[in-house]
């Protein structure tokens, strides 16, 4: 029996392979297109921000507040730990300021354009806020446990040192979220009245002050380690927290006339912030970190003592900036 | 291959057919009626309808289009209460149309625009419905001892017809405004030296119309036109704005035209004129000579940039504010779309926490509305202050 020609069978088999490969390629293209074209859900970042501002550390939870006050009262009654009471007051002040910053963004980011810039920032916003939330649980738990620790013991001191370390971690997570929120605000809020020179300068200054506060608490951490004697001058964050808290209160809350709101409606405010902008150009500075680092108490008032050689400042730009960031405040 | 032979030509045919339908089937049909005639006819009818409209000042707005009987009874012998904002919102829309439809009669060529015509036809229908409901309301009111509840039931129908009419009026007003802006170039020169008073007035009135629409959306769309007792409707700024909108605009912001002055030689004799010409020539020579000398001086730029006109700069600054204000408006409109003022008041009793439980973003939208309309330093208040200082004639 003659063998049937295998030509038709081979050609049919090759066709099937071609079809299979073509299908695989099409599916791969479809998957890639889907991954590229379906936008990440930026609304999740907004929801995370919303939830965070509704349960801010030491602001929204009555239990946290109660435990914190208990701790502070406990510490104040112990002479050798009295130095901690100022730090604890400042921790509450910083926590309030952080809440005010997040509230500002929470009121506005919902109206942000869902553009590339927002998509780029939504992950750092969401991830860092979630991280801060986790650390907050730990802080709350620590406050609760400290109620049971004998107030004059080394265990109490160690607990405070650990609490500070966690608080620094909490601040760092929030700082990263706030930096991403700043970027989202300036690049995604469009040309609204409140996205202007003043908002850019104020929100950038908030970022730098936040950095300054963290740095001060890190220095405090270095000065107050477990197993060492508690120094009376261990605390390094007094000035930075005052400056930070006041700046946020004056510029991001409804307590005062916000320059962000008034920039296009008040010639004086506009002129002041236009000067603030020119300051960086004339003094050839990228940011305010060196100015903030020079904060000192001078005759009972806070002043920024950094000097600049060889700069011609006919408009009084530096004095304007100092007045905006909190120079010449009384204590 | 089968794909190439059959499917591609079919797909191509469908695409071509659809394109044809879109281009030819959905295009504007030729409009036969003159837009000015339509507007004129409808506005004349409305103006002559003294049974439905009267001249009145409501919330600071003086209007000849104050609609009558827009209120409910609270008891058998009570007067009419509520809904005064309907009068203002409606009056403002009709006043704008009345001020600017005449422009359709002054251009070169005849305007027969389908969008304009459709909008005014719709407005006319809306007016006819209102008239019909108002007539029913009046006839009910004439019945002796009719209960106030029955009156209010008929008033409800009348109010709904007025609500629909207001929406049609604003559609018509904006059609007219956009036409004036785009095709008659009414705002083309605003912010330039060549700006006229007419252009500046139109530009500001157009911006005012948009603000009136903001109030309309809040009160009538988000608030469902209900007479709600809420802080969100507590506009201490409303009356200020209405007065602003009817105030004279300052001519200080209009750039005066530069006159070309020629010497008046009518009373002079020939000799004087000739002497004048020689003197002018001598001055010209001197000027030319001095220009040569000036060129020799080091360090001076040859072509100094002309100083910006302060009036033009002021108007440009105003335009910048309004352009940014328009961006704020987008957010506010978004907030009004998503946040129901009616629900907030009637269902949640103005408890934002309760509303938030059902709608997580409610507080953010609520804050936006307060920030725009009612806060002490609301965006509207700041804008009106600026307009009072810079636009209103003193």
What keywords describe this structure?
heterodimer; A: 331 residues; mainly alpha; 3-stranded antiparallel sheet; 12 helices; globular; disordered N terminus; B: 394 residues; 2 domains; two-stranded antiparallel sheet; 13 helices
Report on this structure.
The complex is a heterodimer of chains A (331) and B (394). Chain A is mainly alpha-helical. Chain A has a domain at 43-265. Chain A has helices spanning 7-37, 43-54, 62-76, 83-109, 116-146, 154-188, 197-223, 238-252, 259-262, 267-282, 289-293, 317-325, and strands at 295-298, 301-304, 329-330. The termini of chain A are far apart. The model of chain A is unreliable at 1-11 (pLDDT under 50). Chain B is mainly alpha-helical and 394 residues long. Chain B has two domains: 27-184, no CATH class; 189-256 and 311-394, no CATH class.
Q: Strands, helices and their partners?
A:
The complex is a heterodimer of chains A (331) and B (394).
Chain A: H1 7-37, H2 43-54, H3 62-76, H4 83-109, H5 116-146, H6 154-188, H7 197-223, H8 238-252, H9 259-262, H10 267-282, H11 289-293, E1 295-298, E2 301-304, H12 317-325, E3 329-330
Helix pairs in contact in A: 2-4, 2-5, 3-4, 3-5, 4-6, 4-8, 5-6, 6-7, 7-8, 10-12
Chain B: H1 2-25, H2 35-48, E1 53-58, E2 61-67, E3 72-73, E4 80-81, H3 84-100, H4 114-141, H5 148-182, H6 197-222, H7 238-246, H8 270-296, H9 310-338, H10 341-346, H11 352-358, H12 362-374, H13 379-390
Antiparallel strand pairs in B: 1-2, 3-4
Helix pairs in contact in B: 2-4, 3-5, 3-6, 4-5, 5-6, 6-9, 9-12
Helix content of chain B: 55-70%
Arithmetic mean pLDDT of chain A:
89
Quickly count the domains of chain B. 2
Over all CA atoms, what is the radius of gyration of chain B? 29 Å
Contiguous runs where pLDDT drops below 50 for at least 5 residues of chain B: 268-301
Number of helices of chain A: 12
């Amino acid at each position: 029996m003659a063998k049937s020609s295998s030509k038709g069978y081979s050609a049919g088999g090759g066709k099937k392979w071609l079809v299979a490969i073509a299908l695989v390629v099409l599916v791969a293209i479809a998957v890639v297109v889907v991954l590229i074209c379906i936008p990440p859900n930026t609304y999740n970042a907004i929801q995370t921000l919303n939830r965070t501002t509704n349960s801010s550390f030491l602001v929204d939870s009555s239990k946290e507040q109660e435990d914190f006050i208990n701790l502070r009262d406990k510490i104040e009654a112990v002479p050798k730990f009295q130095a901690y009471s100022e730090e604890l007051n400042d921790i509450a002040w910083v926590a309030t300021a952080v809440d005010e910053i997040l509230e500002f963004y929470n009121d506005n980011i919902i109206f942000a354009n869902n553009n590339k810039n927002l998509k780029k920032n939504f992950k750092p916003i969401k991830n860092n806020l979630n991280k801060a939330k986790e650390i907050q649980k730990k802080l709350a738990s620590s406050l609760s446990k400290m109620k049971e620790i004998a107030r004059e013991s080394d265990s109490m001191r160690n607990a405070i040192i650990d609490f500070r370390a966690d608080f620094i971690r909490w601040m760092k997570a929030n700082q990263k979220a706030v930096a991403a929120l700043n970027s989202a605000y300036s690049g995604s809020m469009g040309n609204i009245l409140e996205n202007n020179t003043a908002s850019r300068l104020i929100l950038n200054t908030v970022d730098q002050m936040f950095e300054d506060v963290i740095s001060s608490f890190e220095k405090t951490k270095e000065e107050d380690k477990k197993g060492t004697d508690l120094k009376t001058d261990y605390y390094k964050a007094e000035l930075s927290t005052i400056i930070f808290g006041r700046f946020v209160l004056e510029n991001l809350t409804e307590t005062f006339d916000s320059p962000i709101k008034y920039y296009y409606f008040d010639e004086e405010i506009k002129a002041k912030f236009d000067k603030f902008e020119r300051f960086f150009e004339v003094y050839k500075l990228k940011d305010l970190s060196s100015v903030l680092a020079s904060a000192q108490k001078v005759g009972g008032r806070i002043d920024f003592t950094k000097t600049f050689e060889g700069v011609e400042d006919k408009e009084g730009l530096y004095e304007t900036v100092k007045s905006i960031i909190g120079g010449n405040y009384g204590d | 291959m089968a794909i190439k032979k059959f499917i591609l030509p079919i797909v191509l045919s469908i695409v071509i057919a659809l394109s044809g339908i879109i281009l030819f089937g959905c295009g504007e049909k030729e409009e036969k009626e003159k837009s000015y005639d339509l507007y004129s006819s409808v506005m004349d009818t409305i103006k002559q309808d003294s049974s439905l409209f009267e001249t009145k000042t409501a919330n600071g707005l003086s209007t000849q289009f104050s609609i009558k009987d827009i209120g409910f009874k609270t008891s058998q012998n009570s007067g009419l209460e509520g809904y005064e904002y309907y009068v203002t919102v409606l009056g403002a829309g009709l006043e704008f149309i009345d001020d600017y439809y005449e422009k359709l009669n002054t251009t070169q060529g005849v305007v027969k625009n389908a969008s304009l015509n459709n909008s005014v036809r719709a407005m006319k229908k809306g007016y006819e419905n209102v008239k019909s409901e108002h007539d029913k309301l009046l006839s009910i009111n004439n019945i002796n001892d009719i209960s106030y509840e029955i009156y209010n039931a008929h008033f409800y129908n009348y109010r709904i017809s007025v609500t629909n009419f207001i929406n049609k009026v604003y559609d018509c007003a904006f059609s007219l405004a956009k036409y004036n802006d785009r095709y008659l170039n009414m705002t083309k020169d605003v912010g330039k030296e060549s700006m006229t008073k007419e252009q500046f007035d139109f530009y500001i009135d157009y911006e005012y119309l948009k603000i009136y629409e903001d109030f309309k959306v809040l009160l009538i769309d988000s608030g469902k036109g209900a007479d709600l007792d809420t802080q969100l409707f507590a506009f201490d700024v409303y009356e200020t704005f209405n007065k602003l909108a009817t105030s004279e605009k300052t001519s200080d912001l209009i750039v005066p035209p530069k006159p070309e002055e020629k010497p008046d030689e009518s009373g002079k004799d020939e000799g004087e004129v000739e002497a004048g010409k020689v003197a002018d020539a001598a001055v010209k020579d001197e000027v030319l000579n001095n220009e040569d000398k000036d060129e020799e001086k080091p360090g001076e730029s040859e072509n100094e940039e002309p100083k910006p006109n302060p009036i033009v700069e002021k108007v440009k600054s105003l335009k910048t504010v309004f352009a940014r204000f328009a961006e704020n408006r987008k957010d506010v409109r978004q907030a009004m779309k998503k946040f129901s003022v009616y629900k907030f008041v009637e269902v949640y009793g103005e408890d934002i926490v309760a509303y938030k439980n059902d709608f997580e973003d409610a507080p953010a939208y609520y804050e936006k509305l307060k920030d725009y309309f009612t806060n002490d330093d609301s965006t509207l208040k700041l804008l009106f202050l600026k307009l009072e200082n810079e636009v209103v004639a003193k």
